[in-house]
Design brief:
Layout: H1 4-15, H2 19-26, H3 30-37, H4 48-61, H5 66-76, H6 79-83, H7 88-91, H8 109-129
Length: 131
């Protein structure tokens, strides 16, 4: 199975485009494109969000599926993917639940509006009384 970098390089070569031409068109630095094609994303000194964006822009330029390329980057190259085991990914979408014993106060939108109006009325009354 080809790596993401190999697919990018193969697509560029198939189109007959040099790295320099690709860099000029995409506005991505040549050394970043080289790192991407070498599958050395960790050598690009940027946050994963920028690397993922570069992968998608470059893939689109090369007439590849940019969404799939972005997903491949997330799966194999993001710092988040390398820090956690695969089983942890299943828990990622679980809703946040506060620890037991911690009280939480929730206000509906209407209740919040009434509180704000009440505070404004009290402020106006106090201003009239003390002026």
């Amino acid at each position: 199975m080809q790596t993401l970098g190999e697919r990018l390089q193969e697509a560029r070569q198939r189109l007959g485009v040099t790295l320099r031409e690709a860099a000029e068109f995409t506005k991505i630095r040549t050394d970043y494109l080289q790192s991407m094609e070498a599958n050395q994303f960790e050598s690009i000194p940027l946050a994963d969000v920028y690397k993922r964006g570069f992968v998608k822009v470059y893939a689109k330029y090369l007439r590849l599926d940019d969404e799939k390329a972005g997903a491949d980057f997330n799966t194999h190259h993001s710092a988040k993917a390398s820090r956690r085991p695969l089983e942890a990914a299943a828990d990622e979408d679980a809703p946040f639940e506060p620890e037991s014993g911690v009280s939480s106060i929730t206000l509906s939108r209407d209740a919040l509006i009434y509180v704000v109006i009440g505070i404004a009325v009290v402020a106006i009354v106090l201003a009239l009384v003390f002026s």
